[in-house]
Structures are given as C-alpha cells and as structure tokens.
UniProtKB/TrEMBL annotation:
Naturally occurring in which organism (per UniProt): Mucispirillum schaedleri ASF457
Gene3D superfamilies, alphabetized: paralog of FGE (formylglycine-generating enzyme)
Record field: compositional bias (Basic and acidic residues): 280-293
Residues in Sulfatase-modifying factor enzyme-like domain copies: 30-215
Region (Disordered): 245-293
Polar residues composition-biased segments: 249-277
InterPro entries in UniProt: CTDL_fold (IPR016187), Sulfatase_Mod_Factor_Kinase (IPR051043), SUMF_dom (IPR005532), SUMF_sf (IPR042095)
Name of this chain's protein: Sulfatase-modifying factor enzyme-like domain-containing protein
GO MF annotation: an example: formylglycine-generating oxidase activity
Length: 293
C-alpha cells in the first residue's frame, strides 16, 4: 500500500468503506474507537461467520488471524489505506493505567458475572455483579475510557499483531506467526482469567469470545477514503440483521463447551476451587499492574 506524502492529522475520522471509526492515539497511529462490528464485517466480506450471529453493532467473534488477514486484504484493497491490527504497546497505550474495585467491574465492562454464569455455567469463578449481558454486548454499551475508546476490557478478547513479550512495537507477518497476543478479556472471563490480561494464543484459534479492532499509521491513510461524519453505534436501536451464509447459522443460545475450553480453570481435587458458585476471596481487583513501571 502507498505511503501518502502528507501524514493524516485529524482528531478522528471514519473509514468510508467499512464505517469503522478511528481516534488519534498518538502522532503516528490511529486506533479504532470500537471493536469491529458484525455489520462492518458484512459490509467488507459479505459473510457472517460468527457464533453469536446477531448482526448490527454486536462485535465480530469466532475469527482466526487468517480470517482477519482476508478482511484486511479486502478492506485495504478497496480503500488504498493500510489498516492493520494494533500492537501490544499500542493497546497498552490506549488503556493507560486503571484500577477498578472488583465490586464495580460490571459497570465498566462485560465480563463473566452473575447473569453469564446463570446462562452459561462455564465453571470458572465469576464477578459478583450483573452487567445484564450473559454473552456479547453491542459495542459501546459501557462507558468509554479516559482516552475515548470503548470495550478495551471485556466483551470479546482482541487479537493483536505481535506477541505478548515483543518489545519492538512492530507487527509480525500475521500469516507466518504461530502465536500472537490477545488482550482485554471477554464475556466468559472472570477474576482468575483477568489476572493476566494479555497472553499469546494460536493464530488458528476461533472461539465465541475472540474478536478484534483495527489500527492504522498516519502515513497509511488515504484521505480520499475517509469521512468526518461520525456515526456512533446506537445500542438502544433495533439490531440490524446480518444475512446468514448457509450452514453458518448458530441456533444455540450459548457456545458449546469446546468453544471456550481454553478459558476454563484447571480442574483440581480441591472442592472449593471447583465450586463454580464460589467467588475468589480477594476484594480488590487491579487491571494492568505492569503499566505502573
């Protein structure tokens, strides 16, 4: 993709082809304000490979790195921009440092809580609060963080373009990488899972709690393919139905056990640790302690 002579420099913009909104993260990078939605995926790919096939502003999930690369190829060819996944460092920069009392977590993000445990019974410890969404929620259902980004924590984990221990802040060759980082946790993650908010996963992995958002370098934005008209998701509006590709419709209300096996706690011989109704004992829950150095 071409590098444009004049680096793009606006506070925010919307990609005219996909409808994805971006906000300036720093002098070199823009980051998508929301996770990519099912409606946006359908605009680009004309497919609906999601487990929770709800359409509209619900987040894309059940996509591997290979699926995302096809999405990027199609979007970049249409726009002559060079959209990509964020790096680990960019995701951390967007989050900043934040501490949340465990009792308040449901007012901040869509995690594994009382309603999700009631519906899904994944078996891991859950937060003792209720965010009203047993599975995924429309993007933007919770307040933005201090930098104006939504759902960096919760809803769906987000694929990143390098590994968790990579300090170079450069993207790997997506199709050549066996493992890449995912970040932020999702609707099936409780207190134990959120002790580590970035971890590497196999790039071939697909499951119902795994999605993504986009980033783009300022010099890689085609100024003729963007708009200043920001159309924010209306989470109270009726959900737009995404046409279903034959054979891809999901009729169950919850993922099969295999879809989220990697998110389950290890089974032990200690009954207190296997009791899915027993929350963890600590009362203070901290996100991202590694950002304090």
């Amino acid at each position: 993709m071409p590098l444009y002579a004049a680096a793009f420099d606006k506070p925010s913009f919307i990609d005219s082809y996909s409808g994805i909104e971006f906000k300036k993260l720093n002098n070199k990078t823009y980051l998508a304000v929301y996770e990519v939605t099912q409606e946006q995926w359908y605009k680009v790919m004309n497919t609906a490979p999601f487990y929770f096939n709800k359409g509209g502003s619900y987040p894309v999930e059940s996509v591997s790195i290979g699926d995302i690369q096809k999405f990027l190829n199609t979007l970049n060819s249409a726009t002559q921009s060079n959209y990509r996944l964020p790096t680990v460092a960019e995701w951390k920069e967007a989050v900043g440092e934040i501490k949340i009392n465990r009792d308040d977590v449901c007012s901040y993000a869509n995690f594994y809580d009382i309603s999700s445990n009631t519906v899904n019974r994944f078996g891991n410890a859950y937060f003792e609060c209720d965010d009203r969404f047993p599975n995924t929620a429309p993007v933007g259902s919770f307040a933005a963080n201090s930098k104006g980004y939504y759902d960096l924590f919760g809803n769906v984990k987000e694929w990143l373009c390098n590994s968790e221990n990579d300090r170079t802040n450069t993207c790997a060759n997506l199709l050549g990488a066996a493992n890449l980082a995912v970040a932020g946790g999702g609707f099936s993650d409780g207190p134990k899972e959120m002790r580590k908010v970035i971890k590497d996963e196999r790039t071939s992995l697909r499951y119902a709690g795994l999605g993504f958002r986009l980033a783009v370098d300022t010099a890689s934005i085609n100024p003729n393919a963007v708009s200043d008209n920001i159309n924010r998701p209306n989470v109270l509006a009726p959900v737009t139905t995404v046409p279903v590709v034959p054979g891809e419709e999901n009729t169950q209300n919850t993922p099969p056990a295999s879809a989220l096996d990697n998110q389950r706690n290890d089974v032990t011989n200690n009954p207190s640790q296997n009791n899915q109704d027993e929350p963890l004992p600590e009362r203070k829950f901290k996100f991202l302690p590694f950002l304090r150095d």
